[in-house]
User: Which sequence fits this backbone?
């Protein structure tokens, strides 16, 4: 079959479910992954023929996309901060907004004296995308990563190994932690923050295929993780240590207020590339 005919079938089957630009993206990701073909191949070879054996994985991927399986789960990988991560249904798929948080932390650390070892703790690490990306870009740091899910820890360990970084993993529930030894220069977290009432705004390929444990909080106490982590940071940040959060875009002021109430300094709320409140930073008082 001609490759361009397969592309047309993708649009015929998927355009009712996704924007046309997203269907194009799916198709190009699939032919790159399974056939090693770059996206401009049809411009160069409009009559390229695909063998029956090569057709099969393309149509398998199409069948999964029709069931609204995330493309990252179908291919078993996601890209984040110019690195590749294995992902499945046990972890959130890394998102570009979180990349912005990582780059903010990199800027913060690179202002420091490079001779000092920096200790970083990532709370709710999931796939390990934040922790691994920081460790890869900051070789003089010591990175720790915590998650309540054993399966998530196993995936994060795999991603650390495949990206050749050394991270210390901790399996624990931050909401139940009473005693913990160790202090850090930076604590970062992208905890669950989507309220149940916001589910209706979300796509089926997220709600149906990504772990609710890592996504949702109750409408009654949507800042439960932020409260606990902010309190935890008070006892586990070094003097002048910095706390970073990814946050719910609708609760920017409320989350910022948590840091203000605990007397954090240099508090900054930043918007993401889409213009939504998404990232928060506060520095611990040095006294």
Assistant:
């Amino acid at each position: 079959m001609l490759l361009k005919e397969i592309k047309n079938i993708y649009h015929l089957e998927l355009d009712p479910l996704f924007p046309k630009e997203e269907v194009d993206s799916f198709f190009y990701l699939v032919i790159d992954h399974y056939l090693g073909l770059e996206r401009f191949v049809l411009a160069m070879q409009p009559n390229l023929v695909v063998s029956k054996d090569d057709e099969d994985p393309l149509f398998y991927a199409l069948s999964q996309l029709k069931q609204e399986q995330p493309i990252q789960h179908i291919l078993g990988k996601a890209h984040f901060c110019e690195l590749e991560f294995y992902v499945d249904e046990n972890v959130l798929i890394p998102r570009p907004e979180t990349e912005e948080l990582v780059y903010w932390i990199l800027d913060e650390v690179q202002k420091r004296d490079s001779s000092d070892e920096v200790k970083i703790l990532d709370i709710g690490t999931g796939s390990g995308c934040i922790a691994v990306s920081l460790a890869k870009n900051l070789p003089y740091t010591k990175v720790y990563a915590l998650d309540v899910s054993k399966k998530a820890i196993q995936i994060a360990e795999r991603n650390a190994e495949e990206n050749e970084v050394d991270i210390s993993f901790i399996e624990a529930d931050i909401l139940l932690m009473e005693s913990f030894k160790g202090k850090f220069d930076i604590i970062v977290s992208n905890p669950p923050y989507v309220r149940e009432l916001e589910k209706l705004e979300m796509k089926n390929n997220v709600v149906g295929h990504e772990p609710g444990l890592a996504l949702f909080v109750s409408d009654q106490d949507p800042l439960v993780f932020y409260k606990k982590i902010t309190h935890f940071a008070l006892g586990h940040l070094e003097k002048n240590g910095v706390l970073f959060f990814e946050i719910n875009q609708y609760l920017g002021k409320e989350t910022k207020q948590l840091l203000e109430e605990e007397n954090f300094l240099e508090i900054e709320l930043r918007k993401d590339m889409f213009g939504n409140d998404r990232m928060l930073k506060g520095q611990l008082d040095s006294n």
Notes: The two ends are 70 Å apart (CA to CA). DSSP finds twelve helices and eleven strands in the chain. Residues 95 and 277 are 15 Å apart (CA to CA).
